[in-house]
Design a protein that fits this description.
mainly alpha
């Protein structure tokens, strides 16, 4: 298996695309999740039972930011684990953990099966 690292020049368009996707997602979130948006009337809610205003404005800011905070915390933990303590992670010695790692890493081996039996047959 030959590993190839992309040149640093490839990071520039990836960073630009990531920033624009975050920016456009922030601007377009009200189309799906905003006040009064019931996802294009996919589920009918009688106006007497509509409590969207109370739920959107009654939650504290900490609860609203909880998914962002936990994502940043766990991403930082994983980054530190793989950068500083990589030699202490024993996933290669444990057979079960290695099978689970390969299962999720290879996307259920769909690409390998398609490559072996679909393209090379």
């Amino acid at each position: 298996m030959h590993l190839n690292e992309n040149p640093v020049l490839m990071y520039i368009p990836m960073i630009i695309l990531a920033l624009f996707s975050i920016f456009v997602g922030y601007l377009a979130k009200d189309l799906y999740l905003g006040l009064g948006a019931t996802f294009y009337n996919s589920i009918f809610i009688h106006p007497n039972n509509l409590v969207m205003i109370e739920t959107e404005f009654s939650l504290s800011s900490l609860i609203k930011l909880l998914p962002l905070i936990t994502s940043i915390i766990f991403s930082t933990i994983l980054l530190v684990m793989y950068e500083l303590f990589y030699d202490r992670i024993y996933i290669y010695n444990n057979n079960f953990v290695m099978k689970v790692y390969n299962f999720f890493n290879q996307k259920l081996y769909y690409d390998q099966i398609l490559n072996n039996y679909g393209y090379r047959s």
